[in-house]
Design brief:
Blueprint: H1 13-33, H2 35-45, H3 57-72, H4 76-99, H5 106-124, H6 138-153, H7 157-161, E1 163-164, E2 180-181, H8 184-205, H9 211-232, H10 249-282
Antiparallel strand pairs: 1-2
Helix pairs in contact: 1-3, 1-5, 1-6, 1-9, 3-4, 4-5, 6-8, 9-10
Length: 287
Amino acid sequence: MAWSDAGPPRLSRWQEAAAVLAVVVTVVLAARQWRPLIEAGSFAARPGEWPLVAPHAWPRAAGWTVICVAVLLRRRTVALLGAWTAVLLEIVVVTVGAGDNSGAPLDLIAWPLLLALTATLLVSVSGDAAHPWVLPGRHAYGTLAAAAAVTALTALAIPLLGDHYGPPADPADVGRHVAFDVPSNLARLVAGATFVSVLVLAVASVSGVRRDVAARLYPLVAAGLAGFVVAQLGLPRPFNVWDGPVLSPSAQAVTLVIALSLIAAAGFLWVRSMDRSAHRSTHPAVS
C-alpha cells in the first residue's frame, strides 16, 4: 500500500502507542541478548580463556538483532515472523530446561520467554505494514541508542572490575583456588545503575509523542514496568541485587493484580481527561 501525500493510513491511538513501544522494547531486548556474549568475551580477554556460553545465546542475539533492524526499517512482516520464531525458540528452551536436572528454577528459565512474548505481542498489535514505526524526532533515536548501549555494554563492568586470580601455588590445593571475585556491593551497584539508566533513557526517547498518544503510551509503559518489577522480585536474584526472592508466588500474583488495577484505573481517567480536553479544543462552545 502506498502512502499518500497526507501521510500513512491513520491507526488508532492505542495502536500508535503500541507501535512506539514496540520500537523501544525490541531495541532494548536486542541489546540485552548481547550481554552474555559481551560478558563472556570480556572474561576471555583477561584470563585468556573463553567461558562457557549457553548454546542458545548466539541464536537469541542474532535473531533479535534481525527483528530490531526489521522494526526500525518498517519491515513488519519480517519482524513478525522473526519475533514469533524467537518465541518458539524460548518455548523450546523452557521445555528442555524444565525437563533436565540442572535444578534451575522455572521462573528463571521462563523469564526470557516472557520478555520475548511481550515484545512479540507489541509488534503484532502495532497496525498494518504501512505504518511508519518511528519515534518522535531524531533526538529520540540517539536517546534510544544510548539505552541500548548501556544495556549491552554494562555487561563489561563485572569482568573488568573484578579480580582474576591465577592457578594456586600448590597445584594439589585446588580447594582454595579462586578464579574470579567481585565485591557483592559492586555487582549490586552495576545492576541497579543499569536498570535505572536504561529506564530513564527509554522513557526519554518517547517523551516527544503527541499528547493523545502519550495518554495511552505511558499507562502501557507503567503496566509493563509493573509486570517486569513484580516478576523480577520472584526470581532467585531479583535485579541481581537481592540474594533471594523478595515475593512468594502468591504475593507476586496479589501485587500484580493490585498494581495493574491501579494503573488501569489511572490510565482510564487520564485518557478520558485528555480526550475531553482535545474535544473541547477542536469543538469550542458557541456562545
